[in-house]
Design goal:
This protein has 116 residues and is mostly beta strands. The protein contains no helices and 11 strands.
Length: 116
Amino acid sequence: QVELKESGGGLAQIGGSLRLSCVASGFPFSSYDMAWLRKAPGLEQEFVARVGKNGDNTLYADSVRGRATISRDNSKNMVYLQVNNLLVDDTAVYYCKMNIHLRDYWGQGTQVTVSS
């Protein structure tokens, strides 16, 4: 059974940093790309970043490019998202996501709230 569990969210100040983590189980983690998405209240879900199965081949949304770093540790079945220089617009629930055989799997999300 595929399970993804995010952590690391919380309250942060504008200009601050957060590191989100996601632990995966139930599938061969190192064989799949992983992604982070987010959903803010009243807005559509938004792609944030993706990392290839070997930790290379990263892709970022324009909204976080230059401020975010996605990484993974295949030995620990973990994927991370570091976001620096936080903006109010980064406030959202952040989800890690993967896809197996055309089916998406998500965690329960972790709330990030950025305030002044």
